[in-house]
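Sequence only, no structure available. Ideas?
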Amino acid sequence: MFARRFRHPFPGGAIVFLLRTAMNASTRRGRLIRFSVFEVDLDSHELFKQGRKVKLQGQPFEVLVALLSRQGEVVSRDELQQKIWPSESVGDFDQGLNRAINKVREALGDSAASPQFVETLPRLGYRFVGLIQEENDSEPEAGNPQTTSTLILPPNQKRGWASKSRLAVGAVAVLALLIAGYFYIHHPSKLTDRDTIVLADFTNTTGDRVFDDTLRQGLTVQLGQSPFLSLISDERIHHVLPLMGQPPDARLTPELAREICERTMSAAVLDGSIANLGSQYVLGLRALNCRTGETIDEEQVQAARKEDVLNALSHIASRFRGQAGESLKTLEKYDAPLEEVTTPSLEALKAYSAGWKVLFSSGSTAALPFFKHAIEVDPKFAIAYAALGRAYGDIGESTLSAENTAKAYELRDRAGDEEKYFITASYHKQVEGDLEKAEQTCELWMQAYPRALAPHGFLTGAISLNRGHFERSLREADLAIRLDPDAAIIYSNLALSDVALNRLNEAQAVLRRASERKLDIPDFAIQRYVIAFLRGDTAEMKREAAQAHEGTGAEDWMSNAEGFALAYFGHLGEAKKMSRRAADLARASNRRETEALYETDSALREALFGNASMARQSATAALQLSNSRDVEYGVAFALALAGESSQPQTLMADILKRFPKDTKVRFNYEPTLRALLALNHHEPAKAIEFLQTAAPYEIGIVSSGGSEILLGAGSFYPAYVRGRAYLDAGQGEKAVAEFTKILDHPGIVVSDPIGALGKLQLGRAYVLAGDKEKAGTGYKDFLTLWKDADPGIPIFEEAKAEYAKLR
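Reply:
I predicted one. C-alpha cells follow.
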C-alpha cells in the first residue's frame, strides 16, 4: 500500500479512546490474529475456537501462521521448506508439509475440495483465503470484514497508588505508541515488492480525443520503467472483464478498475484525469486503496501547452513512484522522460495504445494497422516496431516479424530499460535466432526486473523448447503463472513441455486448469488434438477438429494437424486435401509465409514416402511464396531426400549467409542438410561426421515457422538421417539406436512421418544387425499401422516386398 500526505488533524475523540485503551491494556491477551470463529495467539503459540483451545502445535501451527502472514497470497512450498523445514530432505519435507496441511485443515474443520481457509494451488503452493478481522474491542459489522491490525500491550500488573502513578506515565508512553499506531493502522503504508496496481482509464474533459487511451498508455510505459512497481497487465484485464459481465474492451472507469483490483487481489487503483484550465491543461492522478476506497495519494501538475502534456505525465508518474515507496536509487536510474522512451507524438502514441487494445480484444491480425500507423506518424517509435514484430510473430509471419524487430533493435536507445530487454531478447530470438544470447538477455532482464513476466515467457517458450530443455521450460512456466495466473500462452508452453516429456496426464491437467480460469487460445485446441492422437483416441480427435473448424482461429492449424495425422497412417490422399485446405485458409488471411510452410510440410511428407515428383511440386510452390528460414530448410530437406543436390546446396548457402548465428541453423539445419547431401553422394561416413554437432540439440522441438506448437515436421530429423547413414554404412546396431531414440520420444515427434517410418527403419536396422525376430516385429508394426494405407505409396510397396522376403 501507499504512504499518503495527511491533510486532516488527528481526531480529538480518538485521544480519549486511545487513553482508555492503554489504561485497560491489562485485560487483553498478547498478539492475536482473528478470523471467523478462530483466534491465533502468536505469543503462546495457541489456536482458539470461540474461546476454547484447539490442539495445533509445532510445525502445523507454524504453517498456519506463515499462511496468515501472507493472507490472500500464494506461499510456495519452497518458501515453507526454507522457513520451517530448512534441513529436511525433499522426501521428508514433502511428507512433513502434507501432514501439517492436513492437521491445519482438521483443526479448522476445513476441506481441500471446498476450502474456506486454506486453498491448495497445484504446482504453486498454498493460500489463506479466509477473512482476517481487525483486532478490536467490538465485533466487526456484518458484511464489513476488517483487515488485520494487531497491537502489542504490556502484561497485567498489581496496582497500588504508586503503581497507578507509574501506569499513568506508562499510559502516556503507550499513548504515544498508539498515536503512531493509529496512523499506521488508518493510513496505508507504502507498497511492497509483492503488491500490484490496476490502472484505470483517464477521465478526459478537454474534448480532445487524442488524449483518450493515450495518457493511460503513456503512464503504463512510464511506470513500467520501475523495477519496484507492478501493474496488472492489459492482457489480464481483458480476460477478467468478461468474467465480470463486461465486454473485454470496456472503458476502465475508477469503479470498474477497483472491482478488477479486488478480483486480482491487487493493492491499489490509479485513476487519472486531464482537464482544461484556460489555455493550459491540468493532469491529476489519484491512488485508492481498492479494499477500503480510501484516497491514499493525490498528485496534480499543469502543462502550458498540448505539446507539454507528455512531459507533465512523466513528472506526475515520477512523483507517484516516490510516494509509492520506490527507492531514490532506482528512481534516478530508471526514470527517462516519456518522450524519450516512446514518442513525442500524441497521435502516434494513441495509435500504439489502440493497437494493444485491439490485439487483446480481437487478435494480432486486427492490431497490425494500428501499429503500422504509429510508425508512419513517428518512424523512430522503437517499441511500436517491437509491437508490430510481435504481432507478425503471433500469426506465423517470421520474416515480417524479424524485419520490424530488427528496426526496433536499431532504435532501442529510444526505449525504456525494460522495453530494451524485450527488444534485445526478441532480436536475438527472432532476427539472429541465437537462443543462447536470448537466454542471457532474459537472465539479465530478470535480475533488473524481478517481477517481469515476459522473460519467463521467453524462457518457457522457444528458448528452452527448441533446445530440448523441457525441465527448464516447466520451471519458468511455474514462475510465470505465479506472476500472472491468467497468461494463457504460459499454460500452452507448460502443456507443451509436459507432452514432450510424455506426461500426457499432466499436460491435460494444465489445459484443464486454463479452462477453469476461462482461458482459451487456438493453441489449446491443437494441444488437445495432439494428446488425443498420442493416446490413440480417434473419437476425441474428431471432436476437437470439429470444434476448431467452428471459427475459433485455429482452423488452418487444425487442418494441417489433421493432414499430418492422416499421413502418419498412410492416408496420403486425404492428407493432401487437408494440407490444401490449410494453405487456402492461410492465403485467405494474407499469410503468405504460413501458406508456404503448409506447402513445405506437404513436400516433406511426399519426399519421405518416396513421391519425388510430388515433393518437387510442393517445394516449388512453397519457394514462390516465401524464402523464410524454415521454408528454405524444409524445401532443401525435401529436395535432398528426392535425390537432388544442386538446389539444396544453394538454399543451404543462403540460409547460412542470412542466419550465421542461428542456433537451429548451426546445430540442426546445416549438419542435417550436409549429411543428406553426403548420402546422395554415397558417403555415409561423412554424413555421420557432419551430424556430430547436432547431437546435443536434436531432442529439441523444431516445427513449422519456429512455432512452439507441435504442428510441422522437423523434430528428430538429425537422428533419422543419422540412422539412415548407419544403414547405408551397414552398421545395424547403431542404426537401431537412432530409430529407437525417435520411437522413444512420441511427445516430440507426434505425427511427423518419421514416427511411422521409424518402425519400418527399425525393422531394416535389425535385419542388418542379424536379429530376424525383432526385424519382423519392426516391419509388422509398420504394416499394421498402415493396414488401410493408400496403395501405390513407394515406401509402402517397398516395406511389403521386404517383409515378404523376410518371412
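The two ends are 78 Å apart (CA to CA).
Hope that gets you unstuck.
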